């Protein structure tokens, strides 16, 4: 139904500088986005304005300059580093006689290329349909015609009205399917909460190195590349942390400045993992000159999805690309780690991350001495399974004396599983 450019197309990029900070975009980021989409850049047209032009977004002279560049270079797509209105897009396409895409459409296209799972494809399709619903008119040249003739009399709808009705039906179908997926995810989250398993979610600007760090911590083998939005589908893996036990590590989609609201809405189910996390690892590419702006952009998106209050540990990644920086940890006035400097690519400093996770997630460590009767051999085996026994001996009456050290959460979990009677075996507690 809709035009969509193919990977390998030839593009003219358009970047306009505005005095308003909220409207500013990064030209290098646009080039990286275009490259990630598999599009070849022929030329870049730049300019400056106080405010967007109502007809062409750029001025009439600049619009003609773009059209001339398209004809001269043989380009077949124009990519704007800004959000265009449907009218501006149609006017520019009529002038340039080729497809015109804005920043939102480019990001959506990258997402469409990268989605692999059933849920991811549904989410991308929902975002695309919401975006395209205001641009239906560009798909048809016979919008004024009403259905008529033999076999077509009756509805009295224009083609555009029919398309919008079908579009609404498809959006409704996708929402219902995503609701089922969300219910399954929610069941998994509830089970983890019941078992009090901590969840650590990796968040950060796109291409900050989240998937590389995720692979280093879990040996998951998820796709990692020097591309924007290399990761789209969320991945969950178990990881063992000293004095904490099993944790769930979640790799999530990267954020970007001015992330389209349709994408935020469509990926609500995926981003729920971020909202419900025990701790967020905020991955930052410290070698990126604009990493301070990227931190602000990520925090803005976290606030939008109601995850701004979740505790964070900042990971300053890619120190191997910066001269003179060694792995270390920054602590706050209470002695808690707030920032870890490391390289996920080489692995230096990763041990400092695990130490910081232990400090932040362990809570109170319980040191207990238990006298377990000989008939409770299964309970003794359970403590060995948890790998928490520091010393074992036997009393004169045959009881097994165990000195154990484990997380307070793990101890409470044992009480729930074995019943309060397990506390009767405690002879000494710290």
From TrEMBL:
Binding site for GTP: 204-211, 229-233, 251-254, 317-320, 343-345
Residue positions binding Mg(2+): 211, 231
Signal peptide range: none
Single GO term (MF): ribosome binding
Cofactor(s) the protein requires to work: Mg(2+)
Hflx-type G domain ranges (all copies): 198-365
PROSITE patterns xref list: G_HFLX
Swiss-Prot/TrEMBL keywords: Cytoplasm, GTP-binding, Hydrolase, Magnesium, Metal-binding, Nucleotide-binding
Superkingdom of the source species: Bacteria
Pfam family membership, one: MMR_HSR1
Localization in the cell: Cytoplasm
Main location: cytoplasm
PANTHER family: GTP-BINDING PROTEIN 6-RELATED, GTP-BINDING PROTEIN HFLX
NCBIfam families: GTP_HflX, PRK11058.1
Protein family (similarity comment): Belongs to the TRAFAC class OBG-HflX-like GTPase superfamily. HflX GTPase family.
Quaternary state and interactors: Monomer. Associates with the 50S ribosomal subunit.
Record's function text: GTPase that associates with the 50S ribosomal subunit and may have a role during protein synthesis or ribosome biogenesis.
Name of the protein in question: GTPase HflX
Natural source organism: Psychromonas ingrahamii (strain DSM 17664 / CCUG 51855 / 37)
């Amino acid at each position: 139904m809709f035009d969509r450019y193919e990977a390998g197309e030839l593009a003219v990029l358009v970047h306009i500088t505005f005095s308003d900070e909220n409207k500013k975009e990064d030209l290098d980021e646009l080039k990286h986005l275009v490259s990630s989409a598999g599009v070849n850049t022929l030329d870049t047209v730049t300019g400056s304005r106080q405010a967007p032009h109502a007809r062409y977004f750029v001025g009439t002279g600049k619009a003609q300059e773009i059209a001339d560049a398209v004809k001269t270079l043989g380009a077949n797509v124009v990519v704007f580093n800004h959000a265009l209105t449907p009218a501006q897009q149609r006017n520019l396409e009529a002038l340039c006689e080729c497809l015109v895409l804005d920043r939102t459409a480019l990001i959506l296209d990258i997402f469409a290329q990268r989605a692999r799972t059933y849920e991811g494809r549904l989410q991308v399709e929902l975002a695309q349909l919401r975006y395209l619903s205001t641009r239906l008119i560009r798909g048809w040249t016979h919008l004024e015609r009403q259905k008529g003739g033999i076999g077509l009399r009756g509805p009295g709808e224009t083609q555009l009205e029919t398309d919008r009705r079908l579009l609404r039906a498809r959006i409704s179908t996708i929402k219902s399917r995503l609701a089922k997926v969300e219910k399954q995810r929610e069941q998994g989250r509830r089970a983890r909460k019941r078992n009090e398993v901590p969840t650590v979610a990796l968040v950060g600007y796109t291409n900050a190195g989240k998937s590389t760090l995720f692979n280093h911590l879990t040996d998951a083998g998820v796709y990692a590349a020097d591309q924007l939005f290399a990761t789209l589908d969320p991945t969950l893996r178990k990881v063992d942390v000293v004095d904490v036990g099993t944790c769930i590590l979640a790799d999530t989609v990267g954020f970007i400045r001015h992330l389209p609201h349709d994408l935020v809405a469509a990926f609500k189910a995926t981003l729920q993992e971020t909202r419900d996390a025990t701790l967020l690892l905020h991955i930052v590419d410290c070698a990126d000159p604009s990493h301070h702006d990227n931190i602000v952009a990520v925090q803005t998106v976290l606030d939008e999805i109601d995850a701004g209050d979740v505790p964070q540990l900042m990971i300053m990644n890619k120190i191997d690309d910066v001269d003179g920086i060694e792995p270390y940890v920054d602590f706050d006035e209470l002695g808690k780690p707030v920032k870890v400097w490391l390289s996920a690519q080489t692995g230096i400093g990763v041990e400092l991350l695990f130490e910081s996770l232990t400090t932040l997630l362990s809570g109170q460590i319980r040191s207990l001495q238990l006298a377990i009767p000989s008939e409770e051999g299964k309970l003794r085996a359970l403590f060995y399974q948890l790998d928490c026994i520091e010393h074992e001996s036997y009393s004169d009456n045959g009881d097994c004396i165990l000195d154990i050290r484990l997380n307070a959460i793990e101890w409470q979990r044992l009480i729930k599983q074995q019943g309060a009677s397990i506390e009767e075996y405690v002879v000494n507690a710290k």
